Amino acid sequence: KVPFTGLPGTNYERTFIAIKPDGTERRLVGEIIGRFEKKGFKLVGIKILHPTPEQAAKHYDDLKSKPFFDGLVKYFSSGAVVCMVWEGKDVVKTGRKLIGETNPALSVPGSIRGDLCIEVGRNIIHGSDSTQSANDEITLWFGETEVTNYESPLEKFIYERK
Ligand code: GDP
Ligand code: MG
């Protein structure tokens, strides 16, 4: 059985992806989910919630010494966030590639931030930056029973071997 935080280094690696309040407000949820789906990754957890400032601060704990931290906490807790767990081979690293650079101005066209947003302080999406942070973030935002294990017959078309 796959642990709910996934198995890094296998086809069952998992990452935490969140559509930030601006992405949700701008009706980009379907567009963003579509990009991860079309790539071949598997959605194993999803919910929408309005984070408290305390939850936002905990999520961004590693950035608490940054000058933009207070603004970031305000931004992340300003509205509805779509929290997701995505599964697949190298999904942490490849998910970050789909997302693009932190600053949308430096993100290549074709990436989510490169195509859909302009400023670093309104960059519409979050993705875990390592398998360790994926583990921590999935645990912060999801309970064990909120993440699902399922096999799809499509997987033989997505992976050469399981
Ligand atoms: P990410 O992993 O690419 O999201 O980037 P970081 O973990 O470094 O920063 C978290 C979030 O803080 C980013 O996605 C931005 O929304 C915000 N952020 C990062 N750097 C800056 C900055 O220089 N100015 C502002 N206003 N926000 C920033
Ligand atoms: Mg980060």
TrEMBL record:
The active site is at 126 (pros-phosphohistidine intermediate). It comes from the Eukaryota. The keyword Transferase applies. Keywords: Kinase, Transferase. ATP binds at residues 20, 68, 96, 102, 113, 123. Its cofactor is Mg(2+). One of its GO terms (biological process) is CTP biosynthetic process. This is nucleoside-diphosphate kinase. It comes from Dictyostelium purpureum. The lineage of its organism: Eukaryota, Amoebozoa, Evosea, Eumycetozoa, Dictyostelia. The chain holds residues 60 to 221 of 221 of the full protein.
